[in-house]
Write a sequence for this structure.
């Protein structure tokens, strides 16, 4: 285990510059990383294991950082809660450490001529309609590519991007399009189709359009109600514009399709998600008399973060 003194003697030191208030301080990036580890771990003991330092050495590193800054980062009265200035400083520290990590990664990639690792996250809908086909294309073209993909709640994408846990996010952007630190590249919209099982009461009306009132008379299952869907419902069927109108909420489409196939439940999903079942005849499209509903999705990344070669390749494939 290296002590901070040993690291200094070996020249393992990175100097950054952060403007804070009226002062500009030269700060050791390794001490900033120690500070972030304590915040994220919630204790000195856990943080010391993360950064591979003894607890006394980690404590000394934090105190040196506080000395450089001229103010306390933690309220040590029985806890490790951040002080007011500590909370204000946290985002700036994350920003600088993240940029340093980006620079190191890009330098290594340039030196080795590598494509690198792509870290991407998306919601369940985008996983099926956009991300999976794009990744299949990339894997086929670039054997040296490594991908870490996660599927979850699209509303978590901004936090994952800001913490530099992912390079790109793919998802519905209507709820986050006003965030100034994020850049959004819209994808081609996909129409939402409304579906039920063969033999459903709504399937027995050939050539007749179904009203939203008739549609919502049956249990509704879906991955959720994103903002663009809520706005559409408020305009055309306001009494069903809340999440309470959903009988089953799940981000796993195979589960939703099974529920639809075995019950009188109905659903709305992007045409690309429902296409295999529609073509096989295991799902039936319900023709509504209301105007079409289309999703609003895009590729999202941090404005101030340079994209890796792998991230740029994914964007090229997805944006065409």
């Amino acid at each position: 285990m290296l002590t901070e003194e040993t690291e200094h003697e070996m020249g393992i030191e990175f100097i950054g510059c952060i403007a804070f208030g009226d002062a500009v301080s030269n700060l050791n990036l390794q001490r900033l990383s120690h500070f972030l580890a304590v915040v994220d771990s919630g204790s000195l003991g856990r943080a010391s294991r993360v950064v591979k330092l003894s607890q006394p050495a980690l404590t000394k590193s934090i105190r040196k950082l506080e000395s450089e800054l001229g103010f306390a980062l933690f309220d040590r009265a029985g806890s490790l809660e951040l002080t007011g200035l500590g909370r204000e400083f946290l985002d700036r520290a994350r920003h600088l450490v993240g940029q340093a990590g980006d620079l190191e990664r890009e330098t290594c990639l340039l030196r080795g001529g590598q494509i690198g690792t792509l870290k991407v996250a998306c919601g369940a809908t985008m996983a099926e309609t956009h991300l999976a086909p794009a990744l299949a294309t990339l894997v086929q073209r670039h054997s040296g590519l490594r991908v870490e993909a996660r599927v979850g709640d699209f509303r978590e994408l901004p936090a994952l991007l800001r913490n530099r846990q992912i390079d790109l996010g793919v998802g519905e952007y209507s709820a986050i399009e006003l965030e100034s630190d994020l850049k959004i590249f819209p994808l081609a919209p996909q129409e939402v189709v409304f579906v039920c099982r063969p033999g459903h009461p709504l399937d027995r009306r050939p050539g007749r359009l179904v009203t939203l009132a008739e549609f919502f008379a049956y249990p509704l299952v879906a991955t959720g109600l994103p903002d663009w869907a809520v706005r559409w419902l408020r305009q055309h069927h306001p009494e069903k514009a809340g999440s309470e109108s959903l009988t089953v909420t799940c981000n796993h489409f195979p589960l939703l399709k099974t529920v639809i196939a075995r019950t009188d439940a109905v659903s709305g999903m992007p045409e690309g998600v429902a296409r295999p079942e529609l073509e096989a005849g295991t799902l039936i499209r319900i023709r509504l008399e209301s105007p079409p509903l289309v999703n609003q999705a895009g590729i999202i990344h941090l404005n101030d973060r340079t994209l890796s070669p792998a991230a740029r390749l994914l964007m090229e494939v997805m944006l065409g």
In short: Residues 4-110 form a domain with the Arc Repressor Mutant, subunit A fold (CATH 1.10.10.10). The CA atoms of residues 26 and 131 lie 42 Å apart. Residues 84-112 form the longest helix (29 residues). The chain is about 45% helix and 20% strand.
